[in-house]
Amino acid sequence: MAAMSQSSANESEVSPRGAKRRLESRKRLLTAARKLFVSRGYHETRPQDISKAAGLGHGTFYLHFKDKRACFLAFVEEARAEIDAAILVRAKRSKNLAEFVEASLTAIYDYAEEHEGVLATALSDEAVIASGSGGADEDTLLHRWGQEWAELLREQAKSGVVAKDFDFSVVGQAIVGAIHQASSFSYRRGRSRGALVKSLSQFIVRALSPARAK
């Protein structure tokens, strides 16, 4: 009994340390993967490149990710969480929909500038997802943002800020598509970010206004 108790005690001591090491190695792999996906692109990055850049053995990669595709999607999820957190910080003091839209757009553009190449690379996930078997849990980054917008608008409609007769699942995707397209166009044409934020915010708020729906 004493031996069994000692064994159990040792396991309880080792398990947390093992979990911590596993978490640290996954973090190192994702940090390395991010740098390589951004600098080289998805197709030019190999699992062994990621492992080497992380300073870990090649076999360690497969302890955390089924393949490179799974690693890329984990990178996209990490970037999405970071952007969502940045939006929350800026938008939590918004008093109305217009302020929320402006704060959200500003947070996204700030993130893109502070983490050069990360957002653009993450947005290429549509092609990566299409290359696999697919599944309900593999919505693209843009699709997930569209779903989040849909939920926001449903809540706004309850308080009368937004017209209620929309199919918000469609409108949420339309808003994200408009933001993505307008942002790409403005960047390529050298338009100012301030003008972009103002125009998009006005367009979204006016389009959703209950008065416009009548």
Q: What do these coordinates show?
A:
This protein folds into two domains: 1-65, Orthogonal Bundle (Arc Repressor Mutant, subunit A); 67-214, Tetracycline Repressor, domain 2, CATH 1.10.357.10. The protein has eleven helices and no strands. It has helices at 2-40, 47-54, 58-64, 68-91, 97-114, 118-122, 125-130, 141-158, 168-189, 193-208, 210-213. Helix 1 crosses helix 4. Mean pLDDT is 89; it is low at 1-14.
Order of helices and strands: HHHHHHHHHHH
Q: Architecture of the largest domain, according to CATH?
A: Orthogonal Bundle
- The CATH homologous superfamily of the largest domain is termed Tetracycline Repressor, domain 2
Count of helix runs: 11
Q: How many independent structural domains? A: 2
- Gyration radius over CA: 22 Å
Compact overview of the structure:
The protein is an all-alpha fold. The protein has eleven helices and no strands.
Helix/strand layout:
Elements: H1 2-40, H2 47-54, H3 58-64, H4 68-91, H5 97-114, H6 118-122, H7 125-130, H8 141-158, H9 168-189, H10 193-208, H11 210-213
